[in-house]
Amino acid sequence: MRELFSLAFRQLARKKLRVFLIVLGIAIGVAAVIGVTSLGEGLRIQAVDKIKASHDLTIIEVSAGSDKGSTILLTDSKINDIRRTEHVILAAQYVKDPYVTMNKTYLTFKGVTKDYKNIQNLQMEKGDWFQENTNQVVLGRDAADKLSKIENIKPGDELTVMLRLYGEEGRPMDKTAVFRIVGVMKPTGGEHDNQVMLDINKAREMDEKEAYDGGFVKVDDPAFTSSVRTKIERLGLKGYSAQDEIDAVNSLMAAITLVLGFFSGISLIVGGLMIINTMTISVYERTKEIGLSKALGASDFDIMKMFLAESMIIGVMGGILGILLGSAFSMMIDILGKPFLVSQLGEMGERLQSTHITVITPSLLVAGFIISLVLSIVAGLYPARRAAKLNPLEALRQI
Questions:
Q1: How many CB atoms lie within 10 A of CB 168?
Q2: pLDDT average, residue stretch 183-191
Q3: Interatomic CA distance for residues 319 and 334, integer angstroms
Q4: Is the Cβ–Cβ distance between 181 and 159 less than 8 Å?
Q5: CA distance 277 to 18
Q6: What was the pLDDT predicted at 136?
Q7: Which of 56, 157, 231, 398 is 20 to 30 A away from residue 349, measured at CA?
């Protein structure tokens, strides 16, 4: 084996410029694939980290499901089944309805429990959380601002609102209630800022619903979120968690990276064609040498091994150079591309200032090297086979 590769090195050394151009062509293809893939991986990690920072991966949102055309409602029995599920530490249901004040200011009221407050980590800015089974309500920050500006209603004041229900024949029926505002929540940056929270029992007295509009479940570890959600779905309900967003981002970025990698890998195909062309020419140039080797007892397989060894050496050199160029290309994308992305994304792009938009993993470098090696060997099969099938008598006639 040592003699085989030693002979292959000597053959390649006789045509340095030709070999260098082939190696460079393969290296550029490998570098392009590594650079593009590292960019896709970097952006994927940025998106996933953003989701993890803004969402609690231990929370599952639950809603009504369907089975064979029938709707599976979220009821007390379903909630109790969920609470008994392993790894579930909290489960909280809610009802949600549109209310309107006497001055036609529309608000979303949500009937919740104390567990709901704990799951969503709702904090108070002013006042206290409402007491159970009372006509007390807590305002979101935006809802408080709306009532203050439009109706001059502040914490401590009474709030008169109306809920419209529809009877058996679709006849409208209005129910009026008076609530006392006992607090304002800290801004959450989400839907809670525009909502009014009240006790779930009082909310159900108002809307007369037989089931809940939804709920939230908290598990003890993010690792069990997927398994708990599966058990919830077996109850006929729908489950959603932030992990769904992460899975969607991973799938999307994988598809984008695959497409970009395919187009950037076209240069690898060009490199493979260069190997076939060069090695085929080499067969014609070394016809006498091949004929003499066969006359001295070399088998077809020995000839094939000689040419494949040359292809393998080219692939190894192309892979190593491609890894070096790909790493440099990735760094260039990070240095030159990050300022462009920051300027285009505005406030969102400012988060990229202290991070890298490209990520090179060991598996990516190994994949680049393997691609180069396999491509070179595959491209060398045709000229190697052509050399092995050469008729030694015809070759010797050229001596």
A1: 5
A2: 91
A3: 22
A4: yes
A5: 11
A6: 94
A7: 56
pLDDT above 90 covers a percentage of the chain that reads: 39
pTM score, whole prediction: 0.70
Q: Residue 365 and residue 157: Cα distance in Å, rounded?
A: 66
Q: How far is CA 226 from CA 118, 175, 218, 238, 382, in A?
A: 21, 41, 12, 13, 50
Separation CA 44–CA 56 (nearest Å): 19
Report the chain's terminal Cα–Cα distance, integer Å: 29
Burial group, residue 27, by CB count within 10 angstroms (0-12, 13-18, 19+): buried
State both tokens at 131.
Answer: 């007491």
Q: Which amino acid is at 382?
A: Y
Q: What are residue 240's DSSP bridge partners?
A: 61
Report residue 83 as tokens. Answer: 């609470």
Instruction: Return d(Cα 34, Cα 4) in angstroms, integer.
Output: 31
* Tokens encoding 137: 């309500």
All residues at 6 or more sequence positions from 57 whose CB lies less than 8 Å from its CB, including other chains: 222, 225, 241, 242, 243
Q: Which residues contact 164 (CB under 8 A, 6 or more apart)?
A: 100, 172, 173, 174, 175
**Is 184 within 8 Å of 127 (Cβ atoms)?**
yes
Report the DSSP beta bridge partners of residue 174: 164
